[in-house]
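> call design_seq(struct)
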C-alpha cells in the first residue's frame, strides 16, 4: 500500500521497505540479545534463517512478531484473554481506544489476540519520544506503527495534529485498516484511566460534516485493559516521589528505555482485553456547546472502559488496604491478600532512592491497583 507523500514522515513502513530494514534490525546486538533471551538459540536461529523469506509486512508480523509475542506470553504472563471479539466485523475498520498500562505491550498483545481470532492487526500510534534508538524506529514501523510527533512549538503542534488526524482518518476510511491509540498521551501511572479531550479534538480536525458525523466515521471502539501485575509499578511509584521531591524533575530517555525493558520482560500475571460496543455518538452531541463536545465524548469513552475492566483479586485487596475496610473482602482470600502484600514489599525493595519514602511509595502502588475498582464502581452506578 502506497501512502500519499504528505504522510511519509509518520506512516508505517510498506511492503517494499521490509527487505531494507529487517536485515538491519536483526543485525542489532540488542535485538539479538532479546531474541536469544525470549526464544532460545535454536528458535532464534530459525527466525533469522526465515528472515529472507519475509517480503511483506504481513510476513514479518505473522512469522516473526506473533511468534515472538507467543514466546513472551509464555514466559511473562499467566495467560492473555480477549473478550468481546464477537462484537467485531472482520470486514470493518475500527479505532480501538484503550487505557494505557504498558508502553509496548498494550498494543502488541491486543494485536496478537486479534490475529489469533482471525482479524487483521491494527496500525499503532507511538510517540516519537520513545524512538530513542534507530533500531526501535525500524522495529515499530515495520510492525505497522505510525509516529505521533510530540515536539515543536504551539503552531507546529497544530500542524502535527492536523496531519495525524488526516492520516488516521485515511487509514480507517481508505486503507480500511484498524488503528490502536491510547486514550491519553503517556500511561496513566496511577491507573486512573481518563480520556484526554485533546485526543477527541485531534481526531475531528479532519473529515467533513458535523462533530457527530466526523466522530461516527471513525468507528471508535473502547477496549479495557487490565494486568494482574504491572512490572513497572515500582518505577512509576519512584517517579512520583522524584516529582514530589524535585519540582524540576524530568525523565530521561534512559528512563523510557528501562520502562520498556521492564514492562516487556517482567512478570505480568493474567492480562485481559475487553472490547466494548462501538461508541454510540448521538445526534444530541451536536447541540452541546462546541467547547464541551470533546469532554462529553471523552466521558462516554471512559464509562465504557471503566465498566468493562476484568478485575483481579489484587485490585480488590488494594482497594480495601487503601480504605482500611473490608468492602470487597468477598472478592479475595486471605492468601490473595498476603501474596499481594508480599509482592508490594518486594517491589519496594527495587526502588533505589537515597531518601526512599516507603509509606508514600507503598500508597502509590496501592492506588495503581485500586483505582480501576473505584472507577468501575462509578461507571456501573
Amino acid at each position: 500500500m502506497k501512502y500519499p507523500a504528505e504522510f511519509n514522515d509518520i506512516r508505517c513502513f510498506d511492503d517494499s521497505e521490509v527487505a531494507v530494514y529487517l536485515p538491519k534490525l536483526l543485525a542489532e546486538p540488542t535485538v539479538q540479545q532479546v531474541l536469544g533471551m525470549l526464544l532460545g538459540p535454536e528458535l532464534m536461529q530459525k527466525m533469522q534463517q526465515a528472515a529472507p523469506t519475509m517480503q511483506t509486512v504481513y510476513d514479518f508480523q505473522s512469522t516473526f512478531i506473533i511468534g515472538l509475542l507467543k514466546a513472551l506470553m509464555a514466559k511473562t504472563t499467566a495467560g492473555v484473554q480477549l473478550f468481546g471479539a464477537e462484537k467485531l466485523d472482520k470486514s470493518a475498520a475500527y479505532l480501538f481506544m484503550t487505557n494505557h498500562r504498558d508502553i509496548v505491550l498494550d498494543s502488541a498483545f491486543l494485536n496478537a489476540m486479534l490475529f489469533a481470532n482471525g482479524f487483521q492487526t491494527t496500525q499503532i500510534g507511538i510517540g516519537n519520544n520513545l524512538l530513542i534508538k534507530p533500531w526501535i524506529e525500524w522495529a515499530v514501523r515495520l510492525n505497522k506503527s505510525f509516529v505521533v510527533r510530540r515536539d515543536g512549538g504551539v503552531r507546529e503542534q497544530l500542524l502535527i495534529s492536523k496531519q495525524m488526524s488526516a492520516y488516521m482518518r485515511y487509514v480507517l476510511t481508505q486503507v480500511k485498516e484498524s488503528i490502536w491509540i491510547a486514550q491519553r498521551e503517556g500511561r496513566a501511572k496511577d491507573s486512573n484511566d481518563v480520556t484526554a479531550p485533546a485526543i477527541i479534538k485531534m481526531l475531528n480536525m479532519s473529515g467533513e460534516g458535523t462533530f457527530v458525523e466526523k466522530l461516527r466515521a471513525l468507528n471508535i471502539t473502547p477496549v479495557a485493559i487490565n494486568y494482574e501485575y504491572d512490572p513497572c509499578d515500582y518505577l512509576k511509584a519512584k517517579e512520583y516521589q522524584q516529582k514530589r521531591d524535585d519540582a524540576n524533575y524530568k525523565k530521561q530517555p534512559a528512563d523510557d528505555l528501562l520502562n520498556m525493558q521492564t514492562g516487556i520482560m517482567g512478570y505480568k500475571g493474567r492480562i485481559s482485553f475487553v472490547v466494548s460496543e462501538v461508541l454510540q455518538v448521538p445526534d444530541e452531541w451536536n447541540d452541546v456547546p462546541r467547547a464541551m463536545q470533546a469532554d462529553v465524548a471523552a466521558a462516554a469513552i471512559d464509562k465504557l472502559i471503566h465498566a468493562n475492566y476484568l478485575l483481579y483479586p489484587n485490585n480488590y485487596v488494594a482497594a480495601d488496604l487503601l480504605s482500611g475496610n473490608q468492602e470487597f473482602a468477598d472478592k479475595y482470600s486471605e492468601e490473595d491478600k498476603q501474596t499481594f502484600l508480599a509482592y508490594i514489599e518486594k517491589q519496594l525493595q527495587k526502588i533505589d532512592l537515597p531518601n526512599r519514602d516507603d509509606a508514600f511509595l507503598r500508597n502509590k502502588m496501592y492506588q495503581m491497583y485500586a483505582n480501576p475498582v473505584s472507577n468501575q464502581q462509578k461507571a456501573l452506578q
